[in-house]
Amino acid sequence: MRFLMDHGFEFFGQRVAYAELIGQLGALAVVFLAQRRTLWTWPVQIVTAVLLFSVYLSAQLGGLATRQVAVLAIALYGWWAWTRRRDPVFGVAVRAATTTERLVMVGLMLVGTTGFALLLDALDASWAPWPDAWIFIGTLVAYGAQAYGLVEFWLVWLAVDAVGVPLQLMSGLWFSALVYLVFAVLVIRGWRDWNRTAAAARQRMTVDTIG
Q1: What is the pTM of this model?
Q2: How far apart are CA 68 and CA 46, in angstroms?
C-alpha cells in the first residue's frame, strides 16, 4: 500500500498516486458491475474501499476516509444480500422503493449529514465538513439501498456526485473529480437499466398472479 501511495504520475499538473488511480478505476468498475447486477460488484468494492481509505486520509478528508470503512462493511453485507435475492430470469431482484422507503432515505440524508458534519467540525477532522458529511451519508444510504435492490439508489449517487466533483477539485484530487464526472454518466445509465428491469419483473409478477 505504501508503494501505491508514494508512487504515481502527473495529471494536469497534479500528482496522482497509483492508489488513487486504481481505487477510482475500481470505483468506476463497481458502478459498471452494479448496472449489470453481478455479484462481482461487491468484492471489487471491497478492494476499492481499502485503496481509497488511504487516499482520502492523506488528503485530510476525514469524512471520505471514514466513508470507506463503512463502505467496506456494507459491501460485505451487500455481497451476502445479493446471493439471497436472485431472480431466475432477471438476476438480482430489483424494485422501486415504496413511499415510506423514499422518505426514510431523504430523512437519513438530511439528519445524517447534519449530525456528521457537526461531528467532523467538532473533531476538526475535515476542512470541508458539510460536503464531506453529505458524501459520507449519501454513500451509506446509496449502498444500503443498493444492497436491498432499490432502484432509487442511483438517484442518491447523483446527489453525491453533485457535491463530490467540486470537493475533489478543491482538494486537488483532479483525477478523482474526472472519475466522478464519469460516474454521473454511468449512474444515469444504471438508473435507466434498473428501471427497465424492475418494470419487467413487475409485469411478470402481474402475469403470474393473473394466471
Answers
A1: 0.74
A2: 9
